[in-house]
Design goal:
- Helix 3 packs across helix 8, helix 4 packs parallel to helix 8 and helix 9 packs across helix 10.
- The longest helix has 29 residues.
- The termini are far apart.
- The chain is built from 16 helices and 16 strands.
- The protein is about 45% helix and about 20% strand.
- The strands form 3 sheets. The protein has a 6-stranded mixed sheet, with helices on both faces.
- By secondary structure, it is α/β, with parallel strands linked by helices.
- The structure holds manganese (II) ion.
- Manganese (II) ion (MN) binds next to loops.
- Manganese (II) ion binds next to loops.
């Protein structure tokens, strides 16, 4: 008696009996392919019906437990089976016992890898149980052929988180399926324009998902939300995809609302959640920092990611002693502060034009899989970006309104007045650039910058400002419920959305509130 993992070339043409579970069934134009698992590993087995292209054993379904007699064969150097006789196991006790064994094996194999943190800090140590849970859910998805959709915010931090995780996940998918094409079939990455899982995103994901489930018999996916996923605004999309049996894990550092007993609102619906606010910390550990750390718990052999934590931190302007240590690591491999800042800008620039595409190759090159191309691209793009920045600052410093009557300097910009439609930088980035520029000339007085659109505001606050943007959103919700106000983000960088009819009233309230801090 052998199990799947013990089969080798000497067994070709020999016949064996196995007890196993059907993981996947695929119909080709020839035989039917059953992917089966006996607990030692999964293996492809082919079965022929009377007519090519028609289902063999049409009575069998995924998840069924079967007893088989099969002949070992070899195809392109890979050991396969040819099904000769199949019996569905109906004995309940036998079935339950075997499923129990399979689950125990799966739990063991999907345990997070045993690694140290790249930078060990108090908050990351406290997050360890959350990190292990996320890593193990991801490993489990790979081991059970559950497709993965990685959704990340389309900024430098979100891209760093996404790519760090991708570099850990793809080799495991290839190993699991023994083919290069599996990394396209079982994995997709998709940037999200908003810093949360938008309804348009989930509709797109679900459309593909349901089609793939029907066409290829795929399982419902595991959705990984990176630099996204923790807030009230993510809830509708998360709840929607859960209806289809998807699993959802979240790696985020946005302000997730009130924490009670270490839990927040989305925790009721997601399968695992890493966010520094859950353990009483703040957004300093950015999604890219967290993603880089988590990647190694998924795959301890992951390569080429250690610089991504520093790059993410630079992109999201995270500072402090913990971040310094991540920066040191990047410095040691030849990325100095100036280059990191330029690269971060280039990624923001590129992501603006990539929009919702995956662009796996291009993004990978830009994030360092081809260092020579990366250097060339940064050199080319940064010149253009700097020119645009100059143009933007000339315009915004001319058209911005400045109010110094309160404790902090308040800068306001009319969004559609100072941006060019369809071109980088859009309003959020434009406010950011202007904000930094004003800070640099403000002799330490705190600065609040606001970009005002017809139905939104985007806000930035300097370190000196003692205020959380989410507070003002809560107040507006209570005072003007008829304006449909919503929004969020970080304590010092976020946006407010509302109905255009309420814009005047909301603007007055916000200005008054901020002037009188
Ligand atoms: Mn971020």
């Amino acid at each position: 008696m052998k199990n799947f993992i013990q089969l080798n070339k000497n067994d070709v043409r020999k016949r064996f009996n196995f007890l196993c579970k059907i993981e996947e069934i695929k119909q080709t134009s020839g035989p039917t392919i059953f992917t089966i698992n006996d607990g030692s590993r999964s293996i492809k087995s082919v079965a022929f019906s009377n007519k090519p292209g028609t289902r063999a054993y049409p009575e069998l379904n995924s998840e069924d437990i079967i007893e088989i007699s099969a002949m070992v064969s070899e195809r392109d150097g890979i050991i396969e089976l040819e099904l000769k006789d199949v019996k569905l196991v109906t004995d309940d006790f036998k079935k339950k016992l075997f499923i129990g064994q399979l689950n125990a094996i799966l739990d063991k194999e999907s345990t997070a890898d045993d690694v140290e943190f790249i930078v060990e800090s108090e908050p990351i140590k406290k997050l360890l149980p959350h990190i292990k849970k996320v890593a193990s859910e991801i490993k489990k998805a790979i081991l059970t052929n559950r497709p993965i959709i990685l959704r990340h915010h389309a900024d430098c931090d979100g891209y760093c988180a996404g790519i760090a995780l991708e570099r850990a996940i793809l080799p495991l998918i290839k190993k699991r399926h023994e083919t290069d094409s599996a990394e396209w079939f079982y994995y997709k990455r998709a940037p999200s324009k908003a810093p949360f899982y938008e309804y348009t995103d989930v509709v797109k994901d679900l459309s593909f998902t349901i089609d793939d489930m029907n066409k290829f018999g795929q399982k419902a996916p595991l959705i990984i939300l990176a630099d996204n996923g923790s807030t009230h605004e993510d809830l509708l999309a998360i709840k929607k995809i859960k209806i289809y049996g998807a699993k959802v894990v979240v790696i985020d550092h946005h302000f997730p609302g009130k924490v009670e007993n270490g839990k927040v609102e989305v925790d009721k619906y997601v399968d695992a959640h890493v966010n520094p606010y859950l353990i009483g910390f703040d957004s300093t550990l950015t999604a890219g920092v967290l993603g880089t750390e988590i990647a190694r718990f998924i795959n301890k052999d992951v390569d080429g990611i250690k610089h991504l934590a520093a790059l993410a931190a630079v992109g999201d302007r995270a500072k402090g002693p913990i971040i310094e240590k991540y920066l040191d690591i990047a410095h040691k491999i030849g990325l100095d502060d100036k280059y990191l800042a330029e690269l971060a800008e280039c990624i923001d620039f590129e992501s603006y034009y990539i929009r919702f595409m995956e662009s796996r190759g291009l993004v990978n090159d830009l994030l360092g899989s081809d260092v020579e191309k990366q250097r060339q691209m940064v050199k080319l793009m940064i010149e253009d970006i700097n020119q645009r920045k100059e143009t933007v600052l000339k315009a915004t410093s001319h058209y911005m309104k400045r109010d110094d009557s309160g404790k902090y300097t308040i800068i306001t910009l009319q969004a559609d007045g100072v941006t060019s439609r369809g071109e980088y930088p859009a309003i959020g980035k434009t406010v950011g650039m202007t904000h930094d520029y004003v800070i640099s000339k403000n002799n330490g007085k705190g600065v609040i910058s606001i970009g005002i659109g017809p139905d939104f505001m985007t806000l930035r606050m300097s370190d000196e400002v003692d205020f959380n943007i989410n507070t003002i959103i809560e107040e507006l919700k209570e005072k003007m419920p008829y304006t449909a106000v919503d929004g969020g983000g970080h304590e010092h960088a976020g946006s407010i959305k509302f109905l255009e009819a309420g814009s005047q009233e909301i603007k007055e309230f916000v200005m008054n509130r901020l002037k009188n801090l």
